[in-house]
Fold:
Amino acid sequence: MRGNRLKKYLIFTRSGFQTVLAYRGALLLWFIGAMVSAVLMGLVWWAIYSFSPQSVIAGYAFPQMLMYVILSAVVGEVIYTDTMGSITDDVRWGLIGMRLMKPINYRVQLGFAAVGDFLARIIIIGIPVLTAGTLTVVFGFGLKGIQWYNILLFLPACFLSALMFDVFGFLFGQLAFRTQAMFGVASMSQIVISFLSGGIVPISLFPAWAQTVLAYTPFPTLVSLPVRIFLGQVGWMEMLIGFAISVAWLVGLNVLAHFAYKSSVKHVVVFGG
Amino acid sequence: MLKELKLYPKYVSMSLRSGLSYKADSFIMMISFAVTEIISLATVYLIVGSVPQIGIWSFNALAFLFGFILVPKAIDHIFTDELWILAYWAVRHGELDIYLTRPINPLYQFVAKTFKWDGIGEFAVGIVIMCIFAPISGIAWSFGSVMVLLLCGFFGIFAFTGIKLIFASLAFWIKSSGIILNTVYNLSSYAKYPLKYMGKAFMSIMFYVIPFGLMLYYPIECLITGVNAWWSVLWSAIAAIVLMTIGLTVWTIGIRRYDSSGN
Amino acid sequence: MIELKNVEKYFKKPVRGKGVWGMFKSLFSRKYTVVKAVDGVSFTVHDGESVGYIGANGAGKSTTIKMMSGILTPTGGEILIDGKHPYKSKERNAVLKTIGVVFGQKTQLWYDLPLTETYELLRYIYDVPDDEYKKRLNELIELLDMKSFMDAPVRTLSLGQRMRADLAAAMLHNPKTLFLDEPTIGLDVLVKRNLVDAIKKLKAEYNTTLILTTHAMSDIELLCERVIILDAGKVLFDGSLEEVKHMFGDTRDVKVTCKTVIDGESVKNHFGDAVIKHAAEDGGHSVTFTIDGTKLTTGELLNYMFANYEVADVKISETGIEQVVEKIYEKDRAQGDGTNGEGDARE
Structure:
């Protein structure tokens, strides 16, 4: 019985995977765009380091900073599961009513699709780009201290981040019930989340007070944690605590999103969406 | 041309009244653009703040540059946002048909249709940042430097419009050029960093290929160093004319290939 | 007068490779197949004519209309509307002022505004003088029965209302020629009928030249005197509606129901080969005769039936152009079998 239900939802994982495959051309172009940005960010840092009195800024020497920029770009693209887009489309094209009537939990369905989305992104583009980027920085810029077990641990950390991004998408995506301006909501939430989670610059550059505040939010687990794990900046204990915090936030946010969703759906019923 | 100018207020008013049913949405978009730019400035602050000075550039000067770039960007955004639709959607879905059957320039009709007042958010952020940082940017203010700023700001609009038109028109060949346009357009956000120190290769690209550097960054660098400022105006003007000429040519050649598919 | 001289429109479709690498390669490769959407079409339409332009999906009819209305540039040949080319940048504005276009699947109305807003804009675009605009708009509102929805935003209109509004938009500047591309698509029967009547009224009132493409053959039968049939980008037939019927067999079915049993065979014997076949139902109480319209009128058959039987009910159904076209295709297929291999690649 349970196995059957799981099977039912795994169909959505597969379709999420296949959706990404179908749009692999566009995805590839997005990735190229993200990599161009990473290279240019690297140039900005190159200018900064050449005028810096110290060789280490906020805990990062130049090769590490370069790797940080590449890694955060890869993480940003890989965990970018399209949960928000799915809700937006379902609401806009009036499919949401139909979805709600099916004997399938809409939230769980979206989550399983996000997993497929993530797997496709990391397999067809994430891993190749990551390999190329790492080799470039290690052999071209002399980055040291990358361990194979850290690279392996980076993957489950990304998976947790993808789930986190999915729940953010589910939370903010519910705004589609209330506004047409989902392009604005999507782009704003993406940039805010990216900034606060260390997707643009390392959190260790932030003022001390901001770092303290951020430590009490789910954001650092999203980009900063996997990237720092990859770079070998996270000890075993900290890693375990980091994963535990991630999972705790995931549970908490999903509960919150669940209740928010209940009220959103009432909104649909009231306004005949 | 005269007819187009006379018609423009009519288009603006129609576009504004069309948007009235979505006032709250436009407001969200406006906030979203403003927030995006503020985060972008915070990023510059965090990066640049880690060193006292990058050659001739202090953070204050870079912040002023940041504000300056936002203004032409916002103005272009307000007037020609529809070019994004051209790149992503309109060619692929054959949505230019109706403009081609009317006795008035089709590009004009397509672009004039949408007046994005929510770009005011970016515009305001740009002006405020400029006002805050103008006195501490290290620029020697005079009538001349204000004129340089105004003129380069004006030509700077066409840096965005021209690039958008060129790369959006590529859609006539490849159906959807949105992602490519997006990548090229995003180069503009690197004009707010000290290009001078970011390597010869990238600087050349930003000066001679995709001239965001020449048109947006260089004028402020000249104002800070106090040399060549009027030359930068001249270069901006030339670049604006060249970009728009290329853009209109690509559009004109492209529209002949338009195949009205998608229905 | 509209002249098409050996007009061609070819589309190049890039050959797409498979897989990520294939799609990457196709960005740079120059391999493509040429699809001949319109392949040497010539005809002339005189002022005031109404022409139905028909053919299967992908026969090239929309492509031709789009070339005539300035949307597409022909690959070869020449299109002249009153001596000017609609696709040449110097001449297009002069041509476009004299034509109106309605697409069944696209609207030119502003989605969120009342109709009058779009009409006002069009009035400026086409330089319609103020008094003329007012007079004409009132006429059109009357003619197309649009009073009830003039002030509602376009997004709230039904498809039928929207089509009428689009018709009015295309007629505001008093065009000499009106192009209609699938105007009745997606409409239900009654609304369709209303729209066709409206077009008929417009045509009668303003003597506009009418060129229309449609899937619904009833539209053509009601609106057009002349039919151009297109297949695989070539003109298959160009002539009057009557001619179509005669050339390709004007057959009609007459179903007669009587209280007594009808002897179908004797009826057939009486008229000879003018009765093509007869099929009995209801144990012979009703018989459907398929007659050849060129040899026998329905009236003659019925007179005979009334004279010999106690007729209770009569049903007449004319063979539609739909079947006629189907026949043409069958004929064509039998002759051509596969010589035009491009045919199915077309959109």
